[in-house]
Specification:
The structure holds three protein chains of three kinds.
Chain A lengths: L3 E10 L7 E11 L4 E5 L6 H9 L7 E9 L2 E2 L5 H7 L4 E4 L13 H13 L3 H14 L5 H4 L9 H13 L5 E5 L7 H18 L2 E6 L2 H7 L2 E6 L2 E7 H6 L4 H8 L40 H5 L5 E2 L4 E2 L15
Parallel strand pairs in A: 3-8, 3-9, 6-7, 7-8
Antiparallel strand pairs in A: 1-2, 1-4, 4-5, 9-10, 10-12, 11-12
Helix pairs in contact in A: 3-4, 4-6, 6-7
Chain B lengths: L2 H17 L7 H11 L1 H18 L1 H4 L36 H37 L1 H15 L3 H10 L6 H28 L2 H8 L4 H37 L12 H10 L7 H28 L6
Helix pairs in contact in B: 2-12, 3-5, 3-12, 5-6, 5-8, 5-10, 6-8, 7-8, 8-10, 9-10, 10-11, 10-12, 11-12
Chain C lengths: L1 H28 L3 H7 L5 H11 L5 H13 L13 H36 L4 H15 L2 H14 L23 H8 L2 H38 L2 H8 L4 H38 L5 H10 L3 H29 L7
Helix pairs in contact in C: 1-13, 2-3, 5-6, 5-9, 5-11, 6-9, 7-9, 7-11, 8-9, 9-11, 10-11, 11-12, 11-13, 12-13
The chains are: A alpha/beta, B mainly alpha, C mainly alpha.
């Protein structure tokens, strides 16, 4: 059975003085134990909101959530606040984008680690401190004992993110959600953190949901990839398959826009025309149609559904078919 | 028309419609619109406008003359008379019409409040502007000076200054309250200038060789206008209250025939509260209402002009 | 840490010096100069001239200032005009009364203000929140003395609750140890005195504390709202911590930082409001001394009072700065 099974998740935000906005409009994907799944898309495509909805971290008021989020057989959306609190940190961990603002500035790092241990593993006092020290060491923070009494502003960006990873994994959760964990870091640190995540996930067998807009990150880390656009999953495939044969025009466009070392010099970079805001309400057609070079009449009149062809999930009426003669575009 | 162009036009039309929701560019226009929709702002503005109109047209609005002791003949044991025909709020202890005195008293409050705020604003802006624009030791010196003014709590400072006057008068009150508000405006403007000195548009202007004075007057000052306006409105409210307090303590205008809310409140409260609470309550309510009006307006102005609130 | 404290202390000293100089000059700015002030109505050009000589006012200013400083530092502010007692004694007698009142008002303002502000923030946009905000706006607009008289009439006189004049009923025969009636009654176990003193304290404390209450509610609410939006609160939630842990350790701890700075500033409002409150409730503290001093133009007393008030205000703000540094580790780096 899948560890996490998200079915038709919808999150609609009610806005004062404006139309309600469906940030997530039917997201479906699943995560097997130990698997690394990527959620890819541009800003505004709903990937962060999806993760917050899974964790139950969206504000209590001002939005409507529907659908099903099955973790280990239990629908998280139907749980009470207390039941959800029991699971967060213990069964599902999460790390966020900005490591500096994600840590409480006036509390020492050590306390921010031990409080999770106290809460879910019933550890107190020196036992907790020892474990915290060990955790900081396992994520590669030098001189962990000293760090326990230091404050977040005394650590570098990379170290802070490592600390946050340690905190998220402290109780050995079976699932870790990482929301753009490297976006706010320097490129060299990015590589280190990603390597760390890969090592830890392998060592502990934790499943990982990697949320990012960076295809490079996905390529190096994820087993399967979900591409999101306009609050929906538009394509889902195994990593190698997706990169070799992207079918959805959006995925195709994304991959095509990545500059390659072997392309001809002087050739202009290829972007997807238009912007994320150019979309038609879903009820009237495919949201990507205005920007799509593959669009046909049907794309404007009907909404494509997510279909499974055995190898992949695809939401498109007129997908890109790979060129028969392996000629490069 | 071919299928392709029809499809494209359809999409273009839909895109055009969704893109049209932009609009609203200028910060002030945006702010004005937000203000107009805010009920708190409207209430405040209404109160303020009514107050100003009342003050300007007071002599014509007041039914009777505020200084004539109409009913002095009926006064027994210095007790004010209750409401009766022709005197809707009753009289004070000298038989003068309370309503008329209340209406005419608005003038005093407005004059004192506006003058004190204006003087404090101008003086404060000069000090703060110079400190912010010149910087260096001039800045430190001026800020030390304002710090010292700030080290004495507002009302006490006003009391000290007002007490210096040989004969307390309207002007001593105005001066005292003005001086109390100077440090606030000085700090405000200086802070705004300092914040702007590092911004890109100032650096760019400097790189282009624009004269320093032009930079200050044409680029920096206009951007500082909105917090100053907000503060001026709020200061007006406190000025009116402080002026009333000074009158209450006996440091205000000594001319007993002149109607002034603070003095009326003081008199009424000290002596006549039990027998004639209206002498105290009406000026009190008036002060509270006017101060509230300015405060509501100021606070909603602050929210409206806050760029973080832009949608 | 120590260096920080010392640095701040040194920064305060020049301010105090300038203040004393200004006060020195204040007296001399008065019509007729200090001699005129001392002589009051009986001033004639000749008497002024002779008093000037006696007071040493014909000497150069720097010398006068030096003598003035010397006298202040030894606590000699001259004699009060109205009572012919040393001003310092008057102040010493009145000080406990005002401190008692100010502390009671502060307890009222903080004890009620922080919970109200926090609740308003949690129920943002609701009826409770909106009426609280309205309440704070009105609270700041009502002049202290008006509120005093209103409460005096409608609660004390009409409802018969609490007392409104003085600190204890006359004829109470309470034992005086420190000058703080509440404290003294507790120490001597004179329970009837305790009840009586408290009943006299309630209304003035509420009146004095109303404006600080309004300010504290506003600031607490704004601060809690800010903190609730911070990422680290989200992290705490993501850890699955219990609601009360998140509230206590992450929300309140951070939200109360700006609030504690305000409390320091509130002492200024308290001292200013005390003048008006003490007059209304016949409370024999510094405020009454001040009000009387103004009426009687008792300049030696006024001078001492203003210096004392400014000194207290500066010291309190210094203490607040230091405590801020203790609570917020980021501040120490500066």
């Amino acid at each position: 059975m899948a560890l996490l099974d998200v079915r038709d998740l919808k999150v609609v935000f009610n806005r004062r003085g404006a139309e309600p906005f469906a940030a997530v409009d039917g997201v479906t994907f699943s995560v097997e134990p130990g698997q690394t799944v990527g959620l890819v898309g541009e800003s505004g495509c709903g990937k962060s909101v999806t993760s917050l909805a899974i964790m139950g971290l969206l504000p209590k008021r001002g939005n409507t959530i529907s659908g099903q989020v099955s973790f280990d057989g239990t629908d998280l959306l139907r749980l009470s606040d207390r039941q959800m609190r029991d699971r967060r940190g213990r069964d599902i961990g999460m790390i966020f984008q900005d490591p500096l603002s994600s840590l409480n500035p006036v509390i020492p790092i050590g306390v921010q680690v031990t409080e999770v241990l106290e809460r879910h593993r019933n550890m107190k006092g020196s036992a907790a401190k020892k474990e915290a020290e060990g955790l900081l060491k396992s994520v590669g923070i030098p001189d962990p004992k000293r760090r326990l009494t230091e404050y977040p502003h005394q650590l570098s960006g990379g170290m802070r993110q490592r600390a946050l990873i340690a905190i998220a994994l402290a109780c050995r959760p079976r699932l870790l959600i990482a929301d753009e964990p490297t976006t706010a870091l320097d490129v060299t640190i990015q590589a280190q953190i990603l390597a760390l995540l890969r090592r830890l996930v392998e060592e502990t067998g934790t499943a990982l949901i990697m949320i990012t807009h960076d295809l490079g990150v996905v390529a190096g880390l994820c087993d399967t990839v979900n591409v999101l656009y306009g609050g929906r999953v538009v394509e889902n495939a195994d990593r190698h398959l997706l990169f070799a044969e992207p079918r959805h025009p959006y995925t195709h466009g994304l991959l095509g826009s990545v500059p390659r070392l072997d392309s001809n010099r002087g050739e202009p970079l290829r972007a997807i025309r238009g912007s994320v805001n150019d979309n038609i309400p879903w009820t009237a057609g495919c949201a990507f149609a205005p920007r799509c070079d593959h669009a046909i009449n049907m794309c404007v009149e009907a909404t494509p559904a997510l279909e499974n062809d055995g190898l992949r999930l695809l939401r498109c009426f007129n997908p890109v078919v790979p060129a028969k003669q392996g000629a490069k575009a | 028309m071919s299928m392709a162009t029809r499809k494209r036009d359809k999409i273009d039309a839909l895109v055009a419609r969704s893109a049209d929701q932009g609009g609203g560019v200028s910060l002030l226009g945006d702010a004005a619109r937000r203000l107009a929709r805010n009920p708190v702002a409207i209430v405040g503005a209404v109160i303020v406008v009514l107050f100003i109109l009342l003050a300007i047209f007071a002599p014509w609005i007041a039914p009777k003359d505020p200084t004539t002791q109409y009913l002095i003949g009926e006064i027994r044991q210095n007790t004010p008379l209750p409401a009766r025909d022709g005197f809707p709020l009753g009289t004070d202890q000298f038989g003068r019409d309370l309503l008329s005195r209340l209406i005419v008293g608005s003038r005093q409050s407005l004059i004192v409040g506006v003058m004190a705020t204006l003087i404090g604003l101008v003086a404060g802006m000069i000090i703060g502007g110079v400190a912010g624009a010149v910087g260096g030791w001039v800045d430190s010196l001026l800020m030390r000076f304002t710090d010292i003014l700030l080290s004495v709590p507002g009302l006490l400072l006003a009391i000290s200054i007002a007490a210096l006057a040989k004969e307390p008068s309207q002007w001593s009150v105005i001066t005292a309250v003005a001086i109390v508000s100077v440090p606030i405006f000085a700090r405000l403007l200086r802070g705004s200038m300092l914040a702007q000195r590092g911004t890109d548009h100032v650096l760019a202007a400097r790189a282009l060789g624009v004269k320093e004075s032009t930079i200050v007057f044409r680029h920096m000052l206009p951007n500082s206008v909105s917090p100053v306006i907000v503060q001026a409105t709020l200061t007006l409210a406190t000025a009116i209250i402080d002026a009333a307090a000074l009158s209450f303590l006996g440091l205000g205008d000594q001319d007993v025939s002149r109607a002034e809310w603070g003095a009326m409140l003081g008199e009424g409260a000290r002596v006549y509260f039990d027998v004639a609470p209206s002498m105290t309550l009406w000026p009190g309510v008036a002060i509270v209402l006017v101060a509230l009006g300015f405060t509501l307006l100021g606070e909603s102005l602050r929210e409206a002009l806050d760029p973080k609130n832009r949608r | 840490m120590l260096r920080f404290i010392v640095r701040r202390l040194l920064g305060v000293i020049p301010t105090l010096f300038v203040l004393s100089f200004l006060l020195f000059g204040w007296l001399r700015l008065l019509p007729g100069g200090p001699a005129g002030a001392l002589l009051g109505d009986k001033a004639t050009p000749e008497s002024i001239a002779s008093v000037n000589k006696v007071l040493g006012l014909d000497q150069p200013i720097p010398v006068q200032y030096a003598k003035f400083l010397g006298r202040i530092l030894t606590g000699d502010f001259g004699n009060s005009l109205s009572k012919s007692r040393p001003v310092v004694e008057e102040l010493a007698d009145a000080l406990p009364a005002t401190i008692e009142l100010a502390v009671a008002a502060l307890i009222f303002a903080v004890g009620l203000g922080i919970p109200l502000g926090y609740l308003a923030a949690r129920r943002r946009g609701g009826i409770f929140d909106n009426s609280t905000i309205m309440g704070t706006l009105v609270g700041v607009a009502v002049p202290v003395f008006l509120l005093g008289y209103l409460l005096k009439k409608y609660i004390a006189t009409d409802l018969g609750l609490f007392e409104t004049s003085g600190r204890v009923d006359t004829g109470m025969n309470e034992t005086n140890v420190t000058g703080f009636k509440i404290l003294d009654a507790l120490m001597t176990r004179e329970w009837d005195v305790l009840v009586n003193a408290l009943s006299h304290l309630v209304l003035p404390a509420i009146v004095l504390g109303t404006i600080p209450l309004a300010v504290i509610v506003r600031i607490t609410r704004a601060s809690v709202l800010d903190v609730l939006n911070e990422d680290y609160v989200r992290t705490a939630e993501a850890k699955g911590l219990l609601g009360k842990t998140v509230r206590r350790r992450h929300v309140l701890r951070n939200a109360l930082l700006p609030v504690s700075t305000t409390i320091g500033l509130q002492t200024g409002l308290l001292l200013a409001g005390a003048v008006l409150t003490e007059k209304v409730f016949v409370w024999n503290g510094l405020g009454s001394l001040l009000a009387e001093g103004i009426e009687k133009r008792d300049y030696p007393r006024l001078q001492a009072l203003i210096l004392l008030v400014a000194f207290v205000y500066v010291i309190v703000n210094l203490l607040v700065d230091i405590s801020y540094a203790i609570i917020d580790p980021r501040v120490r780096v500066r």
